[in-house]
Amino acid sequence: MNRMGRYVVSTIAWHVLLALLVLFGLFVFFDLIGELRDVGKGSYQFGHALVYVLLSSPARAYELLPVSLLIGGIFALSSLADSSQITVMRAAGVSILRICRWLLAAGLLFGGLTFAIGEYIAPLSNDAATRYQVAAKESVLFGRFRSGVWLKNNQEIINVSAMQSDLSLQALRIYVHDNQHKLLKIIDAQGGRYQGNGMWQLEDVTQTRFLADSVSVTRAGSMPWATQVDPKMLAVLMIKPKDMSVQALQQYVEHLKDNKQSTARYELALWAKIFYPFACLAMMLIALPFALSQRRSGNVGMKIFLGILLGVSFNFVNQMMSHIGELYQLPPLLAAALPTLGLSLLAIYFLWRQEKG
């Protein structure tokens, strides 16, 4: 990339970061206001709410990045067009295609940043925020329902009443059956702690074995329990699929497939996470015709407003497609790709009209 390309990319990056900062501050403020309704309940105070919102903020930045890219891109390119810098570039022989390559470079840069935040930073910060909030409220990660949480793992059906913020379990029951679904035994434990490498240590255990002609009951102070279920898998039950990393979604989808359970919801979230960074490329491409057309038709504010409205609409449609895809049983790949694909085609059409006109 030559000096001119680096100048355009750096100008766009500066405006995008400025737009992200404004939107980020606004939404974090709203999140803090939303948390105030729980302040004063038990030991949960304003300081706890503030820390929780700050720990959750990377996920908010992940959601806002593509929209910020469109807003910042429109402002940056509009300023370049308004000062006739793009006109000078075109007069010097820079084609629209070359400008698009510069925009795609900026889109790749922020797409990589979006993927990194969504895959590594946001899931860890969300997990830390949830644990912090649970500890501050002196509550449990899950256990609000009378029936507890149920999950299936091979020949075991597991019911957990509650999970503490330190990832220890309370009041769990394990139903063990054979390949013919005949109940072999029931294991009741008052608590359990994960030891690592697929091993749990159960406390205050009662085992009920169903033999051919009798029932045997044994009790023990503690016993090991080997299983594929670990705290991360249990934590999935309290996390929205959109807040999980691609790796975590892949692992959980495989677990559901192994246990012959429905995977549609998590597969759709998986593909949505994969396609989301590519939206940054489409946002960059569609920013160019919005910025250039204002020089011909005037009314800069209206053009920028329409561009912002388009970005917000994309964000809304992208979130809505997860529900539509699940409701109408669309292929997860198709449902996840449609918003980004539609935006890309719209950007290409606008650019074609811009060049043709």
From TrEMBL:
Signal peptide: none
Topology of this chain in the membrane: Multi-pass membrane protein
Subcellular location: Cell membrane
Domain of life: Bacteria
Main location per the UniProt record: membrane
One biological process term in Gene Ontology: transmembrane transport
Protein name: LPS export ABC transporter permease LptG
Keyword field: Cell membrane, Membrane, Transmembrane, Transmembrane helix
Gene Ontology annotations for the cellular component aspect, listed alphabetically: ATP-binding cassette (ABC) transporter complex
Pfam family, one: LptF_LptG
Transmembrane segments: 12-33, 64-81, 102-122, 274-292, 304-321, 333-352
Transport keyword on record: no
